[in-house]
Write a structure and sequence with these properties.
- A hairpin with a 2-residue loop joins strand 5 and strand 6.
- With about 260 residues, the protein is mostly beta strands.
- The chain has a single domain, classed as Jelly Rolls (Sandwich), CATH 2.60.120.
- Helices cover about 0% and strands about 45% of the residues.
- Strands 2, 3, 4, 7, 8, 10, 11, 12, 13 and 17 form a 10-stranded antiparallel beta sheet that branches. Strands 1, 5, 6, 9, 14, 15, 16 and 18 form an 8-stranded antiparallel beta sheet that branches.
């Protein structure tokens, strides 16, 4: 593929690579937060209820053509509906109580979404990826800290294992696992042999090939242990998501720094 030609946006004078379908967002300032109550409900001031939807709207940045919207919900009712400001990004821990957590998906379930930005169709002629750079202050506090892709059409779930289709890397007490779910079957867990230490910053990345096959990367390198190949169904629409859950009442500070999506 080649860069756009006359009259079109291009990154350079080369003709070897398009840049149209890569977006990067940095969590440099707080989002505008509004409550949607339940999916498709009326907008209101955030209320913090269990599974109530609140939207986090970030402006487009230097590395993106589109603004970023995260469709978030609280696991268990909480008094907090948005991230805390942190020197390195946005802290999405919310309340630090046992079994409290936060989940988000980029594309609002039930909407059209933005193709190849927050909504990706499996086996439709292209591969795609999503990567998230973040830090964790205390990894022992995490029951789940998963990032990757899940089925866009699915609403909020209380438990990670209840999702229908997932391709993710999940940090559990510092252990980085591949966790995948296909067609509502049992969760498949594979230890990558990689670990996440207190205070460390890492980038988790999940790729889905044009054939629908998942692969996993940490800090740009393929994980050393591959899971049994998982091929997602043609026509399924996936969206990047995160699922976070406390294992205790201690603080852990999950600070998001940079999110990127694109086409392979």
């Amino acid at each position: 593929m080649a860069n756009p030609m006359y009259g079109q946006n291009k990154a350079d004078n080369k003709v070897d690579s398009l840049i149209d379908f890569k977006n990067t967002w940095s969590f440099e300032r707080p989002p505008i937060v509004m409550d949607d109550g339940v999916l498709g409900g009326a907008y209101a001031v955030p209320a913090g209820g269990d599974k109530t939807i609140h939207l986090h709207n970030y402006p487009a940045g230097d590395g993106s053509l589109h603004a970023l919207q995260l469709c978030c919900w609280n696991q268990v009712a909480q008094d907090i509906d948005g991230p805390s400001v942190h020197a390195n990004g946005m802290d999405y821990e919310n309340e630090n109580d046992d079994n409290d957590g936060v989940s988000w998906i980029m594309s609002y379930p039930g909407t059209k979404g933005i193709a190849k930005v927050d909504s990706f169709t499996v086996q439709s002629g292209y591969g795609f990826y999503a990567k998230l750079k973040f830090s964790i202050a205390d990894v022992s506090v995490l029951d789940d800290c998963a990032f990757g892709f899940r089925l866009k059409s699915e609403a909020a779930e209380t438990n990670f294992d209840d999702f229908s289709d997932v391709a993710s890397l999940n940090v559990i007490s510092g252990n980085i696992n591949i966790e995948s779910i296909l067609n509502n079957a049992a969760t498949t867990t594979t230890d990558t042999t990689l670990n996440w230490g207190d205070g460390e910053v890492h980038t988790l990345e999940v790729r889905i090939s044009s054939a629908g096959v998942s692969s996993y990367y940490v800090d740009g390198a393929a994980v050393p242990t591959a899971e049994t190949a998982v091929t997602y169904d043609a026509g399924d629409v996936l969206s990047p998501f995160m699922f976070f859950l406390h294992a205790s009442a201690a603080a852990c500070a999950v600070v998001l720094q940079e999110l990127e999506t694109g086409i392979l």
